[in-house]
Amino acid sequence: MGLVSAKEMLETARKEGYAVGQFNINNLEWTKAILQAAEDAKSPVILGVSEGAAKYMTGFSTVVGMVKGMIENLNISVPVAIHLDHGTYEGAKKCIEAGFSSVMFDGSHYDIEENIAKTKDIVAYAKERGISVEAEVGSIGGEEDGVVGAGEVADPKECKMIADLGVTMLAAGIGNIHGAYPDNWQGLRLDVLKEIQDITGKMPLVLHGGTGIPDQMVRDAITLGVSKINVNTECQWVFAEKTREYIEAGKDKVGKGFDPRKLLAPGTKAVYDKTIEKMTLFGSVNKA
Ligand SMILES: [Zn+2]
Question: Is the N or C terminus of the chain more exposed, i.e. has fewer CB atoms within 10 Å?
Answer without folding.
Answer: N
